[in-house]
Amino acid sequence: MAHIKVFLVSFVLLCVTAGTPARARSGSYHYGYDNDRESLGWAIVSGDNTSMSDMKDLDSMDMLKSEFGREFLYIRLGEDRYVIRDRALMRRAQDALRPMQEAGREIGEAARAQAEQALAGSRDTRERARLARRIAKLSGRIARRESRGASAEDLEREQERIRRQLDSLTGDARDERAARREERGERGEREENARSHEASERVRKAARHVNQEIRDILRDAKSRHLAEPVK
Fold it and tell me: Is there a contact between 66 and 45 (Cβ–Cβ < 8 Å)?
């Protein structure tokens, strides 16, 4: 089976409200939405790309492809499973999914940006800690030399150099935090919160829309005898 990239709607909502798509295998997306009372599941298979509602049917995809080809819509409703190969109905499903894909990408980009910012901050913290440990070790070496009556000027110069480096890093980090606070301000924070809320609502609405459209497609396909039962 093609390598599949998995993306959970529940995970997206968590990223929006708490501030990450999780990778699994490339070529597909997974949109888990577990509040469906009738246990609806679906997969849109198009060549090497597969978009799935959840992982329950992942193991069945190879078998379904060997039986129905590489272009079909798979729907599971309760215990019943169907495959639809009508191109127009498949396009309906793909069109319904597009807003979810776009919202997911936007949220994923925002989550990655936040993660990169946090990682940069952690790197600065680790470097400051490393320099502080170096200063402490030099202090011990200086004390030992002086206890023997030996000169420790070279160690003191090195210690002073590292101390200036540490002060510079600390000052830069403080200035950067202050600049970010000034740039964002209260208005910026309110705008960010509003954007996050809007993104969260878009994901929820898109998920409900996709599932409802899949149900409508199944009813339409069954009425026109285009839904093939999967045994």
Answer: no
**pLDDT tens digits, one per residue of 59-87:** 899 999 999 999 999 999 999 999 999 99
Give CB contacts under 8 A, 24+ apart, made by 177-182.
none
DSSP string, 43-68: EEEETTEEEES-STTGGGHHHHHHHH
CA distance linking residue 52 with residue 208, whole number of Å: 15
pLDDT digits (tens, 9 = 90+) for 90-117: 999 999 988 877 877 776 666 666 556 6
- The two three-digit tokens of residue 2, written as one number: 């093609």
**Which tokens belong to 176?**
């950067």
For residue 171, give the 3-state DSSP assignment. Answer: helix
Q: Which residue, among 45, 49, 40, 42, has the nearest Cα to 72 in the 3D structure?
A: 45
The tens digit of pLDDT for each residue in 10-60 reads 333 334 333 333 333 445 555 554 444 568 999 999 998 898 888 888 889
**Displacement of CA 150 from its chain's centroid (Å):** 58
- The model's pTM: 0.58
81 touches 230 (CB < 8 A): yes
Whether the Cβ atoms of residue 29 and residue 42 lie closer than 8 Å to each other: no
CA torsion angle 213 215 221 223 (round to 10): -120
Where b means 16+ CB within 10 Å and e means fewer, 160-186 reads eebeeebeeeeeeeeeeeeeeeeeeee
